């Protein structure tokens, strides 16, 4: 024990003496001020201006945030431009929904892959957006100037929103750009990002899932890894090269710059940099918050999803069509489910709660006698004590309730649309829109599977929540019939359970008769959960979380004051960041060293036609037999994936991984199991991002897909 706390104390000291190497997600416009010197010391050969510039073309112009219409600033993945005709690469899992939605039993692009023969053949993906950052600006002072110390938290928030909206509008007035202001450093600073957002993104190619998702959910979040997790897209623009809605007349986008690709190869210790859109990290949480994630939020959400996945996986195993229908859903349920498990493991293994408690102890001493900070931690504690039960109820009401069986959420979506003013004013148009959404929904829907999910969700819900947290209607219904009979009768009587019944209903419904849905058992269930949440959970929980937010701002400001020499980085917030580090293996446990790269030979080692996740495509086996590797080798082997110490998170998927010259050497797609707690606590010894080696990407495009015309579009340097 004594030894352990000594180690903890040392780690703390080291942490405070400066930001540990490799940790951090840095703001591109501030590289020049804070990072470039260190980056160059680590081997980077370019200047800060080469990475981010508003005066000349720079690497940032080739980094793309992938978003969805209506939510263009919450990038779900990153992509990068690799030709002067708007060709992009991202991950296979980032384009998974696109590939899946173009797939059918006849054209099973998920299973077989897809390669457009030429540009005519490339497939449109309505609703997908591609954002390119034009510039960033620090607007902290302009926002703060409008705030006064007398304002309440609500007044402040309202003011910030109002000023931000005005600044955003002013920044892009008279242009086709879009601006977005986000808080950084827990609201201690504000930056505006100005984007040009393209709206015609087409699917150019994707390998079969047996390459793009090789190892499946079994290998997900795990190193050693052999996944060819990439896909190829292209941005199209209007004739003037400006953003335009999809049109067959659009032209491939001509970027101001694009990434050159390096096949030179890599070795341990090489400089690497990841340039992309990390979504969310929480590096400055208190021990109280981490405890709740580790002991309440994650374990319960995991249990709920385990139940869901057992049912979905059994369905997918039983039938090829169900496999297609549920592939994307299963992957997304399983992804966070597995990550939360790794996160708990890492937090416990590295004693994050204990470490944070020690930091907090030191903070208490420092803060004693400073009125602004002296009571901060006590305030946190009392808020988190109150939050405990509410957060548990929230986990079940949302994960198992509203988002449990799909029919529940779907009924609410439809009801809300029919109840809107838009429907009264414009019934035909809205009806068509609902029908289009229904077609998408039912295409991938299996009521029998969903009914089983509903049964399990309700059971879990009842078992794990105190009776006081369960909506009375749900309790009563279940008590009367038992869960199975209740679910069976819901599916029998709900108009949402079958596509035919639903379409017949929608064809006739009007502004009045839509009220009938209030008695539909699926919607009734949604409504009782929603009402219960709105009455009993939301007001108190959001009050607490707003108060926590206010403390969070002070907490981080205080830490900056306490450690004036430490270089802090802002938590990820879906804005463009630079992470840098080096290619490096690691020691996952006693006696084991993980090398920094994997090879095609490793794929053949895992090959097993009996196991879906490891069934290597026959053509790839043949290529391997013939050793037809082309120029895509290092020391005679085809490299597949590599790991490095770059600090990344969800949203960084698809990000370009660059070498010291700024050339593309890989595409980021995951993190290694032992370090997935890095969203909360980064540890340079063990946290690794996983990338697919660009040479494997080229090898698959060239040798497996035979799409060498795409290789011809790229610029490859050695
Ligand atoms: N874990 C990676 C990420 O967070 C990859 C997920 C997709 N792959 C999968 N097997 N589900 O998004
Ligand atoms: N796969 C993740 C994504 O979709 C990246 C892995 C991570 O969370 O680091 O963004």
TrEMBL record:
GO biological process, one term: proteolysis
PROSITE patterns linked to this entry: PROKAR_LIPOPROTEIN (PS51257)
One MF term in the entry's GO annotations: serine-type aminopeptidase activity
InterPro entries: Pep_S46, Peptidase_S1_PA, Peptidase_S1_PA_chymotrypsin
EC numbers, comma separated: 3.4.14.-
The protein, known as: Dipeptidyl-peptidase
Stretches assigned to coiled coil: none
Pfam assignment, any one: Peptidase_S46
Main function: Catalyzes the removal of dipeptides from the N-terminus of oligopeptides.
Keyword set, alphabetical order: Aminopeptidase, Hydrolase, Protease, Serine protease, Signal
Family: Belongs to the peptidase S46 family.
Enzyme class: hydrolase
